[in-house]
Amino acid sequence: xxxxxxxxxxxxxxxxxxxxxxxxxxxxxxxxxxxxxxxxxxxxxxxxxxxxxxxxxxxxxxxxxxxxxxxxxxxxxxxxxxxxxxxxxxxxxxxxxxxxxxxxxxxxxxxxxxxxxxxxxxxxxxxxxxxxxxxxxxxxxxxxxxxxxxxxxxxxxxxxxxxxxxxxxxxxxxxxxxxxxxxxxxxxxxxxxxxxxxxxxxxxxxxxxxxxxxxxxxxxxxxxxxxxxxxxxxxxxxxxxxxxxxxxxxxxxxxxxxxxxxxxxxxxxxxxxxxxxxxxxxxxxxxxxxxxxxxxxxxxxxxxxxxxxxxxxxxxxxxxxxxxxxxxxxxxxxxxxxxxxxxxxxx
Length: 347
Description:
The chain is mostly beta strands. It has helices at residues 2-5, 9-23, and strands at residues 35-41, 51-54, 59-64, 67-72, 77-82, 88-93, 99-104, 109-114, 119-125, 130-136, 141-146, 151-156, 161-167, 172-177, 182-187, 192-197, 202-208, 218-221, 226-231, 235-240, 246-251, 256-262, 267-272, 276-281, 287-293, 301-304, 309-314, 340-345. The protein has one domain: Methylamine Dehydrogenase, Chain H, CATH 2.130.10.10. Helix content is 5%, strand content 49%. The strands form 7 sheets. Strands 1-28-27-26 form a 4-stranded antiparallel sheet, with no helix packed on it. The protein has a 4-stranded antiparallel sheet with strand order 2-3-4-5, with no helix packed on it. A 4-stranded antiparallel sheet has the order 6-7-8-9, with no helix packed on it. Mean pLDDT is 91; it is low at 1-30.
């Protein structure tokens, strides 16, 4: 960096162009930085957690406490709402395009719904506080990771019956299926990644992530066999998906909670509740190429690979009340009916 700083302004400009071209595989589109393009109002009140994008149907599922909003991403309009949930956390989608699965943390179950009608089909009991959830295309099973009972519930998608409960050596967070026989999950309290075999339904590896505290969100580069875990100490860890070896660490924003990966542009994204979206170039040394300012609380995201669009959910907050002897750091109140989705992309 010190050598670059000594160069002339025209040379710096040329270097910047080269860097953006390398990130985007040489496309003109990739020369532009990410920016906030739009926002879609959802309204209502309550907390939120994960989002999930369906590339075939072009709809976005957004958890919102007791409901999940379904948004048509071509229009930005809410086309359906799945209700009667107590605390929705994550959404998983089957590969056939027929059914979806919502983990409900307070009900200790998963809601199965029809993706054509957006109507509930059934509920399946899980462990305590189901949170992260993913669909395995090899065995056609749903893997639900239960935060308080520290185990994974495996559901047969054909019957909606539980076929296994797998004890885990720590508190699970966000999971990913690689489509080749493994499911991975961050163990938040252990600073580790657990790998499970989808056929035997057993833990096969537990990898400590050096330099990573309390990992939460995870993304995967399937062809490159790399996992990207975002960590509470403002780090993104790149890990070999076959050996668990640490490949690199990138410094990201404060309070990260989710990650996604762009195969086309070889970029990893981290949504940070502290108020940034970090973009990491994974093609050349895991370098941070952008920290986009976002509203505080926008800690989870979904990604549309085809349009290179990132979706974040958040609400507006009013001023925090004055501190008192009993409450020294009171929480700022959410502005009523302000819940919305932010769309980030490149022009």
